[in-house]
């Protein structure tokens, strides 16, 4: 049955023959390698740049081994299924931040370079333990429901910091201590080269987003750098791995073996307490930021693949890499959307191919280590700068550099994102974490104060104003718990989605739910973070074949959620659709839900009458046809006739305020009586009856009924009793709904 909305189709994994799966793995692995290899080489300038302050030269092997070891551990321990693993810029920046913090503590602890790296490893270990405990206790769930400005602000901070590092790097190449150019020709040539690389890379990326464009820049950059050196006779910037004399020189170093006497030394215990406080604060910052970054990356993977991503499984494996790898001077790894996207863009969605693609990436990185053994151990620094500029730009959302939208939610998210991003870029990451917590707590308090779940029902408690026949009514009552209705009020914030999940689990096993309806009639404001949470929840429900509906949407809600959530202008129409869907899933097709009657004497209303009474009743009335949208009667009319629906649907409405939709009082299908109040007491019509579809109606006037009743008094009494039963049933059900709603 068509629902009038765009469906997200989830392609299930199909077991492919081995040659095809292997071919997909090779192609996918090479595509992923084209993204991971340049980024890995470039990240050495972020992760290890602080070590220049303690006299250690940058070594590309560190990042290569970070990727190799990290991907291997993630590959073995994580159960993501459809993701390529690697070292993300955020992880490199977190490691650099930790190194910088430890370098600042080095003088008071009398530490040398090896001791600084060991202290950073200890700090990262604490962060890894915090992440592990968060996974074990379920505390990582907060990362899924943090306000969007927190995750976007940290991403913005990463991007701005990377770009700022490049500005300082470029300035340090060619500007001397007095502020003048020391190599003007080389400076102009280098600036020109960076522009050329960006001019090639950015259009290539836009035109071919699924190609490893950064990898193609490496030989171009190396050739141009050699040309600059040849023309200017000035040694240009390179990042070089140390000379390799033995195979063991290629391996990362186990830090404890190189510490020697580099043990922290303090004169008294009081001086140690501030150091411990700073390191614990840094470890908490790393853990918090890493979890938020991983949650954002997982959400991007879910939107890409259409499958739920095992965030806790990735964080568990990432915690192991964070606890172990820094002791070898390496950076932890995790899943990468940038490397996974090219596979999906090229149609490589087989889980086995992606799984084997990680092995191809590892083999490619090991091949590059082999090239270092052969003597190709120099990397042009200008290539690193160009690659990092592109990485930094990729982390910046274009919308953040445009004027924020007019809605209050868009403006709030814009300035909150910039607040967190600028705090990250201009101060330490710990202050950015505090700013993020302030935003999160502020939105949480606002949500707790302004947003509550007003009430929660199933179709057993609340129903639409569409009256059903006895069979349909009994079936809806029996299966009513399969439809959950949640009414909100106040401000919709990021915390609402989680509350809705909790309410669903309290009422019914989500696996036994067919329909979820959110009544947003009393929602005064939608936060953008709530919209994103609703979109993720809708995607998850759609994968489990649960219909997600929302009533009374605002313009912003329609704009963002109309492709994944069914929208209704009012709750009554949504409830009617939900009832029809429950009936459809219980085996009653839409065509059978309103089966027409060809004759008046076939109506259930007259089934108990005598044959002659039924036959002559139809001759005392008349059958009329009313086109869809046309009125049957209007409020104030004095005709006083009884009407029975033979085919179609009729809606009874009362006028609403100007500019508002008329309020539907009831809707009647085939076999049902309406207009009975005016028929019984002769009062004017209290509402307007409109045919919602082409209708055939049996109309019986008061005078004709009186004539027929004199001939068949017993049948007349049966007819009036059946009308009274329908009225009693409606009154009893309406009273029950009022009690449920007010309770």
Helix content: 55-70%
Number of helices: 25
User: Strand share of the residues?
Assistant: 5-15%
Main β-sheet, in a few words? Answer: 5 strands, mixed
Layout of helices and strands:
Blueprint: H1 18-47, H2 60-77, E1 84-86, H3 89-109, H4 113-137, H5 141-144, H6 148-174, H7 184-207, H8 213-232, E2 238-240, H9 269-305, H10 311-324, E3 334-336, H11 337-345, H12 351-373, E4 378-380, H13 381-394, H14 408-426, H15 429-450, E5 451-458, E6 466-467, H16 470-478, E7 483-492, H17 495-507, E8 515-526, H18 528-543, E9 547-551, H19 555-561, E10 566-568, H20 571-585, H21 590-593, H22 611-620, E11 622-626, E12 631-633, E13 642-647, E14 650-654, E15 663-668, E16 673-674, H23 676-681, E17 688-691, E18 695-700, H24 702-711, H25 713-742
Parallel strand pairs: 6-15, 7-8, 8-9, 9-10
Antiparallel strand pairs: 1-3, 2-4, 5-7, 11-18, 12-17, 13-16, 13-18, 14-15, 14-17
Helix pairs in contact: 1-2, 1-3, 1-8, 1-11, 1-12, 1-13, 2-10, 2-12, 3-4, 3-9, 4-9, 4-10, 6-9, 6-13, 6-14, 6-15, 7-8, 7-13, 9-11, 14-15, 22-24, 24-25
Describe the fold and architecture.
The chain has 743 residues and is an alpha+beta fold. Helix content is 57%, strand content 12%. Strands 5-7-8-9-10 form a five-stranded mixed beta sheet, sandwiched between helices. Strands 6-15-14-17-12 form a five-stranded mixed beta sheet, with no helix packed on it. Helix 1 crosses helix 2 (60-77) and helix 7 (184-207) packs across helix 13 (381-394). The model is unreliable at 1-22 (pLDDT under 50).
